[in-house]
Amino acid sequence: MDAAEIRQFLEGSGLRCTPQRFAVMAFLTEHNRHATAAEIFEAVNRVDPRSSRATTYNNLRDLVQAGLVREVAVEGRGARFEAIGVPHHHFVCDHCGNVEDLEWYDVPKPAGGSLGKRVVRECELIFRGLCSNCAQRSASG
Amino acid sequence: MDAAEIRQFLEGSGLRCTPQRFAVMAFLTEHNRHATAAEIFEAVNRVDPRSSRATTYNNLRDLVQAGLVREVAVEGRGARFEAIGVPHHHFVCDHCGNVEDLEWYDVPKPAGGSLGKRVVRECELIFRGLCSNCAQRSASG
DNA sequence: GAAGTTTTTAGACTATATCTAATCTGAGAT
DNA sequence: ATCTCAGATTAGATATAGTCTAAAAACTTC
To answer: Do A124 and B120 touch (CB under 8 A)?
Structure first.
């Protein structure tokens, strides 16, 4: 996603393309990691050193509401965010806590009537275990 | 799980069965909800009004390490915990934030070599959408 | 019942997130 | 161009979540 696309996305959602908001979105699309609010704030701060924490949180809330960003569900302190791009699943390392993306594939929904009257919007698959690095380290250590 | 079983579980994991630790475990097994640390602390506090927040956190950490309790991955402030019992998946309501259990069924692992050298310990499936209550309310409202 | 270990406690401290009121910005109207 | 005003941003106070410390208490073992 390049700068012009980000601008279009924001304005298409009724959000002004402010420098701070743009910086949040740009950071999230560039680094497809699962950034904490602190990391995102730091990135916005590189663009404008006078920017406020509140703005980063406000913008993250707006972007999540607009459907451009997703809050990732992981245990541990501090929310994590990612730009909504190619769908994928997640792998969380027990040891180092890193979150990695796994290729998307369809997951079967619960069978029969067990969903009851619930309405499913999306589904996320989280694997847990040891990432490549930690697995090798624990094998050789 | 009754009182004697909880005691056995704790001692089998090398943990003393203290009143506070017992209270944490008992609350989590009774209420198979996905309790926040604050709710658990409140429950422990009903048993012993002088108990400390730190103790609840210590005990939750110990119980997670011992494999009797799991920290549930959900977005939002405040970690949530559940006793490890029958395996199940989760449904998170977009609207009210409640976490509900869904019947367990096997989920296919990523195909081929896409896991690389990762070692998978467990897998969790999270559905998101509207719970029965919120779905009905939004349909009729 | 003494000695040593584990656990708990109170409260300070750190980290994370939100709120408030004042100020600033920019896109459309003129 | 510049006025206007809703939407955005700011600093800093406040709220919420979690951790740490040192001392006291509660068990275990002898």
So the answer is: no
Q: Does domain B88-140 have CATH number 3.30.1490?
A: yes
- B76-127, pLDDT tens digit by residue? 778 999 998 888 898 988 777 788 889 898 888 888 788 889 999 888 898 9
Chain A contact for B114 (CB, 8 A cutoff):
yes
The ipTM value here is 0.78
Could you tell me how far CA A39 lies from the centroid of its own chain? 12
Tokens of A33: 């990691």
Q: Hey, which residues does A100 pair with through a beta bridge?
A: A91
Domain ranges within chain B, ordered by starting residue:
3-83, 88-140
B77 touches strand D (CB under 7 A): yes
Measured to protein CB atoms, the chain D nucleotides within 7 Å are 7-13, 16-21, 27-28
